[in-house]
Structure formats: C-alpha cells, structure tokens
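User: Sequence for 3'(2'),5'-bisphosphate nucleotidase below. Tokens please.
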Amino acid sequence: MTTTVPSPRPYLRVLPAPVSPYYSPSFASTSPQSAPLHTATMSYQQERFIAELAVQRASILTQKVFFEKAKGTVSKDDKSPVTIGDFGAQALIIQAIRKNFPNDEVVGEEEASSLRQDKDLSAEIWRLVKDIKLDDAESDSLLGGPLASEESMLDAIDQGNSPGGPKGRIWALDPVDGTKGFLRGGQYAVCLGLIVDGDVKVGAIGTPNLPIDDTAPIDSNTGAQQSATSGNGVLFSAVLGEGATSRPLTSGVLAPSKPISMRPVPDITQAVFCEGVEAAHSSQGDNAAVAQRLGITNASVRLDSQAKYCSIARGAGDIYLRLPVKKDYQEKIWDHAAGDILVREAGGQVTDIYGARLDFSKGRTLAANKGVVAAPKAIQDEVIGAVKAVLKL
Ligand SMILES: Nc1ncnc2c1ncn2[C@@H]1O[C@H](COP(=O)(O)O)[C@@H](O)[C@H]1OP(=O)(O)O
Ligand SMILES: [Mg+2]
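Assistant: Structure tokens for 3'(2'),5'-bisphosphate nucleotidase:
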C-alpha cells in the first residue's frame, strides 16, 4: 500500500485493532477539511473510508426497513418498503459524498421527481431518514450529521443524476441492490463505487444478510434466517492496487477489517458457481450449460444482488455467471462497479461474455458489454471458453 500519506489523516477512525491493512493510529485527527487527501495521494484511502462509513450508515436504515416493513412482504404494496429503503439510503449516501467530495458527481439509481409528487411517501421517508445516525458522533459528523430537512433530503436524492461518462470522479450508487431479495427476506446489498476517468478505483458494499464469517459456507437460503438481533452483516471494500477487505457491519465506528481473497480452484469441476435468483436477470439455463461444460457438478448458489460478487471475493464461492436473457439489456453501472473492484482486488477477473473488461466509461450503463463472468484469474479464460461455446460466440 501507499505509504506517502501526509499526517494528519482524520478519516481512518476504526475500532482499534492491528488487522486492517490500511489502519494506522497516526491517521487520527480532528477535521475532515484539514487534509484533502485525494489530492495528496492517489491511494483513495479517504474515499474508501467515507464510502465504508456511508454504506454502513445507510445499512442501518435498510435494516430497519427490512425488519419492520419488508421481510417476507407479499402484499400488493410490495413496492413501498423497497421505495422507502431505496430513497432513504440514496439520500444518506449522497449527503456523505457531498460533504466530503463536493465536486464529485453521483450516478444513483433513484431520482426524486416521483417522490416530490407523493407528499405522504416523502414525509414517511423523511420521518425515517431524520433519525438515522451512526452511534459514534464523530463518525456521524464526518458524514455530515443529520440531513437538515425533507427538502434537503429530496435535493440529495436528485444529485444522483449524473450522466456518467469517461472523465472525472463519478460515484455509482445502488442504495438497495437486489430489491427482490430485500422483499423475499434474502440477500440485498448497499453498493457504492468510485469511478475516476472511467476506471473503478474504490468500492464499498454492505450486505446486511451475509454471515460475518468469511469461511461460512453459503447456499441459496443464506440470509433467510436473519433476525433484527442476529448480528450478521458484512461491510466489504476495496481500493485499486490495495486489496479487498471484509469487516462486520456495525452501527457506529468501523469494525476492524480483514483482507479477503478468492480461493484457488485446482480442480474446476469442484468449483461453486453463483447466479441470480431472478430468471429474468440472467439465463439460468445457459449458466447451467456452462457449468456442465466445465464439468461442475455442484448445484448453483442463487443469491440476489452484488452479494454474489462479495461471496466469490471471500472464497465462499468461485464463479459468478450472469449470462444475458435479453439481447438488448444494458447492465447498469451501479449494479457492478463496487463488485467489479472487489473481485479484481481479491484476485479475480470480471469480464463480459466475450472476455472483455467491464467498461464503466460509457455513461449510466455498461453499453459496451453484455453479461458478466467473474472468476479467479487462473480459470477465467477457461470459463470464458465455455461461455463462448455455449452461447456460440
Ligand atoms: N433483463 C435484465 N438483465 C439483467 N439484469 C437486470 C435485468 N432487469 C433488471 N436487472 C437488474 O438486475 C439487478 C439485480 O440483479 P440480481 O438478479 O443479480 O439480484 C437489479 O438492479 C435490476 O435492475 P432494476 O433494479 O433496474 O430492475
Ligand atoms: Mg441493483
């Protein structure tokens, strides 16, 4: 990692432990304005820290909505908890970005125009958002403290309207990725990635329903047994060239982190592959045909959201297949930016079905790519070979 960071560094306040690869007690300081770190070094430590803290704070909101309103929802009103979680988390995260990096742009999944028409819903979201804070006052104030008003919440949501593109600093934000999993009571993720001049540099993902233990086996029911007190939930992050980590999600100061990496796959027939639960989002038939071609006999692990990227990055699975269902669907950058850097920093490769790297410079979508294939570097070519054979590319 980069060691040329000037002191003081206000950002890296975590529970004391020597395990974080980028934690240093010398970083402790007082004001976030005192060291514009991202101009002093290109190591993106400040961005990583703020992203982690912002995702952690937003995850407090999504967990509240999950346990109070969403889990197992089957009524016609299914959209409402998702809407509340989405808008609320987007407002909180954009506020944190604006506070710390006021010149950066955000490509967020949500926009507030419909919310401005629905005063009752807006008021309901504001009632929730105004009380969400990290229970460490210093960490919370680093993110800007509470939003000032319902109007400032709506303004924050609207600031997710960047068109994206090849130049500048652009955050890709999916406040609740995997909304179907969120409603089903399964996996969902709060995802934030920083793209600089078209290249992902930083990623942070909160997965409130994944087990903390990186070595815990996953299956398609992982997350279904969550309760408000079961204490699960993981915060993943990565910086280009500096590795990937996981740590437990907390409600205050960041917990100590551990490095994570993909596991070696000496025998591809023993690999575990992940895919989405929703058949409309990736072709489960084609995914299965690729697995069969590779000689994989294990059943797929179906998980909603970028929890798939997280799971393979920590070695709880090996391959993520997202083969297209609709030829003309363009994947959204917020569905992949954070996961892409996490897997690559954990020793993996993330490509489209042709084996090309995902191109985050094309605007709000991955217009130059089709589908996603992620695997440890050593086996990626073999997996892509099978994908091309199955899809007759
Ligand atoms: N036809 C499609 N192909 C691939 N992904 C899709 C498709 N339709 C929607 N999605 C996106 O898949 C993401 C969830 O992925 P997963 O199934 O892996 O959990 C959602 O963000 C969703 O976007 P949206 O929220 O706009 O519907
Ligand atoms: Mg999404």
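Residues 1-11, 16-40 have pLDDT under 50 and may be disordered.
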